[in-house]
Specification:
- The chain is built from four helices and six strands; from the N terminus they run H-H-H-E-E-H-E-E-E-E.
- It is α+β, with helices and mostly antiparallel strands.
- The chain has one domain: Roll (Nuclear Transport Factor 2, Chain: A), CATH 3.10.450.
- The chain has a six-stranded mixed β-sheet.
- Strand 3 and strand 4 form a beta hairpin.
- The longest helix is centred in the first third of the chain and has 17 residues.
- It is globular, with a radius of gyration of 17 Å.
- The N and C termini lie far apart (52 Å).
Length: 141
């Protein structure tokens, strides 16, 4: 019985018959890919997951555009030993997704370890078939 289920599952994968992810799942996956890209300094993924008109707000009040956000990670000015998004809630409105989560990190800023526990509000928009981050604002609670 287990073997037949496995074979059936492999057949579905091979033929391309896989149930499509819901929009909420797509957004959740995009948030996870962005989180992983920030943590592991995957600059290609950061560029692919963020809109050209990105507005990235930090809890300090500093606001960056896409280039500055990515440059801080690429140069090591901003980095992470650990990074997780917790207690996530996604609300969809057409091609826009509002994401609230708790940003839990062991950040490394300018060489200093900075434990970070803040709230995070992200705005994602589906553009040309993929979800892109267009806005983010972090705040202390």
């Amino acid at each position: 019985m287990k073997t037949s289920r496995l074979l059936l599952g492999l057949a579905f994968l091979y033929t391309g018959y896989v149930s499509a992810a819901t929009p909420e799942q797509e957004v959740e996956q995009a948030v996870d890919r962005l989180t992983q890209a920030m943590w592991h300094k995957d600059i290609g993924q950061l560029k692919a997951l963020t809109a050209d008109n990105l507005s990235y707000g930090h809890s300090s009040g500093n606001i960056q555009d896409k280039a500055a956000f990515i440059a801080d990670i690429e140069t090591g000015r901003s980095g992470f030993n650990e990074l997780k998004m917790l207690n996530q809630k996604i609300t969809l409105s057409g091609d826009t997704a509002l994401v609230r989560n708790h940003f839990s990190a062991q950040a490394v800023n300018s060489g200093k370890l900075v434990p970070t526990e803040i709230e995070n509000f992200q705005v994602w928009q589906k553009q040309h078939g993929k979800w892109l981050l267009i806005g983010r604002q972090a705040f202390r609670f």
